[in-house]
Amino acid sequence: MATPAGLPPPAFGPASLSPAADFSFSAGANGSSDWQCLDSVWYRKLDVFDMEWKHERQLFDLFVVAAAPYGGPVACVRNEKVFQPAKKNIKPELQIFSARGRLLAKSPWTYSRLVTMSWNNDEVLVCVFQDGVVRTFSPQCEKLHFFSLDERIKVEGGLVQAAVGGCGIVALTAALNFYYNDAFDRSQTIVLPDTGLRGPPLSLCILPAAPCAGSDPNEKTFSWFSPSTTKLEELRIVVATESGALLLLDRHKCVDLKLDDGPFVALSVSRSGRLLACLSSTGQLRVLSTAGIPRAIASPFLERQMRPKQVQWCGDDCLALYIPMHTPSGDVQ
Fold first, then answer.
1. Which CATH superfamily is domain 192-211+233-332 in?
2. How far from chain centre, in Å, is Cα 327?
3. What is the pLDDT at residue 52?
4. pLDDT at position 86, please?
């Protein structure tokens, strides 16, 4: 496709992110063009295939949805916290679709009190429940594993939050204690250091492990989604507290990152694991480098009056923001 008239030739590589970088989200000069400029990088949309989503698309606000990376399967299950009108078939089901929207498999869902549902690196669907039970499923809805994280979780009132990462499962109990399990097929749980929380955090995520000190800097950066021979340190968890502090938690200690603009309501790690996006309650966006102690490297300016609610990475050089908007019919998009 030819470059739009009056615009510079598009660059196909990602823009570099230096510690002093400060980039903004803006549209290209020609609003009718397929090319759009994001910082100094030009993008365009290409039709790959037609989507097959039908009525399921309108029901996503009633589902708990988990999408695997790189266009992998999409798992959906009824959200028991949201009222839904009765239909002919009111029995909940676990449904797994392709990214295109084709139903791959479904099975009865007889469980309750789901805390989180996510895919791990092996495209195994990991479901964590309030009582500390973990169930895993294949992309064909086959039951794979069933185990309990730790009996102490029930004593502490069950789980209120959990996160699934490439290295394992992090769970937070009602007593505000963090547990970590480094396997998806059995219980290998440890208790993490006290974070001093006074209430459940607004968001949490697991960072990929950082390269050990003294490792070759020319070696490929570790990623959850690609193998690496670099030796790795312990897991790291970022916790966004209600008070505004952003905490870094590992097996041995908890550190306050001293980041301004909190509290942060959403956290998102890029696919390579190199960058962390932090979205504040006021709509401010901060981008952190995850190497060593996470530090801010950019503060993108959002040319929006409405506050975004969610943020997700598209690769390593682009962020997608979800901004709820009311339609004339009264729906929210």
1. YVTN repeat-like/Quinoprotein amine dehydrogenase (2.130.10.10)
2. 27
3. 87
4. 67
